[in-house]
Structures are given as C-alpha cells and as structure tokens.
Specification:
With 185 residues, the protein is an alpha+beta fold. It is built from 3 helices and 8 strands; from the N terminus they run βββαβαββββα. The strands form 2 sheets. Strands 3, 4, 5, 6, 7 and 8 form a 6-stranded mixed sheet that branches. A two-stranded antiparallel sheet has the order 1-2. Helix 1 crosses helix 2. The longest helix is centred in the last third of the chain and has 22 residues.
C-alpha cells in the first residue's frame, strides 16, 4: 500500500487491487464530479457528458438513435454500479499513477453517422467512448466519474497514446481539484 499526502489529507491507494469496483460483483455508488455543480442524478449527468462527447458538427442523429445510445450509456453505468462490468473489455485501469486510482469504462462500438461537409454524403462508423473515473480508498462505496472523451484511432500508435494521455491528464486534474471538497460527496 502506498500512502500519499494530498492537500493535508491522507489518501491511500491499494496497489494490489488492480480490479475496478465496477467488476467486483457488489453494488457501489456512482457519483459525478468534474468541477461543475450538478443538480440532478449522477448517472443522467454522465450520460449527458457521454452524448456531448459523441455529438459533433458533422454527426447526424435521429431521435431514435439518440434515445438508444442514451439507454446504452445508462445501462453500462447501472451495470458498473451493480459491479457487473467485465474487466479489461468494459473497465480497465489507466494512468498507472499510484496516487490516483483511475479506471476507464469502455464503450467499444458506438454507432455514429457522419455527414461529409462537402458532398453531404452520409457514412456510418463506430466510435470508442471512454469515461475516466476514480475509486478513492477513502470512499470505498463509490466510483466517481470525472471526464469523458472519444478515443481517436490513427495510424500512428504514438499519436493515439499522446492524445489519450492528454485526456487522462484532464481527468487526473479534475480528481486532484476535488480532493479538498471530497469530490462533492
């Protein structure tokens, strides 16, 4: 076990535990903290952040597809709260920072429709959506969502890694910013 001092509070991360609470087969509470004030349900807030991530200027959504995707995001988060996600394929550790117990929930095949801005032609593809969350040892009954992004796949693996590291850094900053307020819990 590694102990670290952050903002005059003692936090510990169990290095032997590489599995997320989201695949522990026991219920865990979900909370959303990204530095903004939320007024509603944490899962609904996270679903909206997921939808914001996949919406784009050239993406086209019909009401049915949007409803189905929101339901998929919500279902995954509810399964995470029940502790029934599968390790690696659905939730995995990220960042490898002993002070921040961070994981990503993975949506692998999100259907998206894109309109070519010049020709107007529609194309269909799959997007990879990642939600970074932490599982602080001081809050053993929670997993706390911080940041969502779309993983971009490029030909250069180093560039993929650089882009993802940038997104993980954003989530780590949000985590650190929330330490003094205990992530709004």
């Amino acid at each position: 076990m590694i102990l670290s001092h952050l903002s005059d509070r003692l936090f510990a991360v169990d290095q032997g535990s590489v599995s997320s609470r989201c695949c522990s087969s026991r219920p865990v509470n979900f909370h959303w903290f990204d530095g903004r004030r939320i007024t509603g349900d944490a899962i609904e807030e996270a679903v909206e952040r997921c939808m914001d991530t996949v919406r784009g200027p050239d993406r086209v959504w019909n009401p049915y597809a949007e409803i189905m995707l929101k339901a998929e995001f919500k279902n995954y988060l509810r399964r995470a709260a029940r502790g029934t996600l599968r390790p690696i394929s659905q939730v995995a550790t990220v960042g490898h920072d002993p002070e921040i117990p961070m994981f990503e929930i993975r949506w692998q095949n999100v259907n998206v429709t894109e309109r070519d801005p010049e020709s107007g032609e529609l194309t269909y593809s799959k997007a990879l959506v990642r939600m970074y969350h932490t599982e602080p040892l001081v809050e053993p009954d929670f997993f706390i969502g911080h940041h969502v992004h779309e993983k971009i796949i490029l030909e250069d693996p180093k560039e993929i890694s650089r882009l993802q590291t940038k997104e993980i850094s954003k989530a780590k900053k949000i985590y650190r910013d929330g330490v003094n307020v205990r992530w709004g819990l």
